[in-house]
Amino acid sequence: MTTRTLAVVSAGLGVPSSTRLLADRLTTATVAALRERGEDATVEVVELREHARDLADAFVTGFPNAALRAAIETVTGADGVIAVTPVFTASYSGLFKSFADVLDRDALTGTPVLLAATAGTARHSLVLEHAMRPLFAYLRAVTVPTAVFAAAEDWAGGEGTSQELAGRITRAAGELADVVTGRPASARPADPFADVPSFEDLLRGNP
């Protein structure tokens, strides 16, 4: 059985957050859809709130530190990506955009991506189409047709989901699974700095 890697990017700020809750629902549904298609899955979650300072440092220095570099490699090396952001000021959050800004433009070329967003009201649902989809088109990712938006009223009884939201989650997860299983399993990208000697070795005269 082929094992696929799913990278889940959550830009929620709170703990817990509706953004992470939606990300978890989408992940569970996608893993189930992959298994229905005869493939297993491993899941790696990137919580962007844990990398807020790392992202700021990367903008100032021009280089990601080890923790942020690992998060970037998790996303760029995955067979499929689930990307979920809260809506701030009628668009994706600044934290979400900051992470997109540190990705190489070609790093997600051809990668299947499921887009999702959360907000307090359904009036922001078009963020998925006028903001998120163009962003990932610029990154040359392959976004699945169904994007999932969850407003406050979609969460029935806290962690439950409305019938409409559950249906969107199932449909989007199936679309992502279809695209992922139609592609060869990806390998982790090689680290271009893997063979670079450390600064300490250079000081010792060991090239």
Descriptive notes:
With 207 residues, the chain is an alpha/beta fold. The chain has a single domain (3-203), classed as Rossmann fold (3-Layer(aba) Sandwich), CATH 3.40.50.360. The protein is built from seven helices and seven strands, in the order E-H-E-H-H-E-E-H-E-H-E-E-H-H. Strands 1, 2, 3, 4, 5, 6 and 7 form a seven-stranded mixed β-sheet that branches. Helix 1 crosses helix 6 (163-181). The model has no long low-confidence stretch (mean pLDDT 89).
Summarize this structure briefly.
The chain is of the alpha/beta class.
CATH superfamily: Flavodoxin domain
What overall form do the CA principal axes indicate?
globular
Total separate domains: 1
Protein structure class:
alpha/beta
Oligomeric state: single chain
Q: State the CATH architecture.
A: 3-Layer(aba) Sandwich
* Helix content class: 40-55%
Low-confidence stretches: none
Q: Element order, helices and strands?
A: EHEHHEEHEHEEHH
Strand content: 15-25%
The CATH class label is Alpha Beta
- The N- and C-terminal alpha carbons lie at a distance of 43 Å
Mean pLDDT rating = 89
Rg over alpha carbons: 18 Å
The biggest sheet, with number of strands, parallel, antiparallel or mixed sense and barrel status, is: 7 strands, mixed
How many H/I helical runs?
Answer: 7
- What is the CATH topology? Rossmann fold
Number of strands: 7
EC number: 1.5.1.-
InterPro entries: CE1759_FMN_reduct, Flavoprotein-like_sf, FMN_Rdtase-like_dom, NAD(P)H-dep_FMN_reductase
Protein name: FMN reductase
Organism: Geodermatophilus maliterrae
